[in-house]
Write a structure and sequence with these properties.
Blueprint lengths: L5 H4 L3 E2 H8 L3 H9 L8 E2 L6 E3 L1 H13 L5
Antiparallel strand pairs: 1-3, 2-3
């Protein structure tokens, strides 16, 4: 499994961190991105494929969840 780079983890969240923040599984996060329910990740490491998410992305995802009445 690819590891996130330290410099990116200081300003971004990883998929695992976002899943905890939104109370969704990693699979649910990835599926919603693939289905274009959630926006694309803020950044993706071209070498490892690790996805990173900023606070703006998290806010947008929470808005989507609220609209879908899934927010907890």
């Amino acid at each position: 499994m690819p590891k996130p780079k330290l410099k990116n983890t200081l300003k971004f969240h990883t998929t695992s961190q976002v899943s905890r923040l939104l109370s969704l599984s990693r699979y649910q996060i990835e599926l919603r991105i693939k289905q274009e329910v959630f926006p694309v990740p803020s950044s993706t490491d071209p070498d490892s494929g690790v996805r990173y998410f900023d606070e703006d992305w998290i806010s947008k995802a929470r808005e989507v969840l609220t609209k879908l009445n899934v927010a907890k």
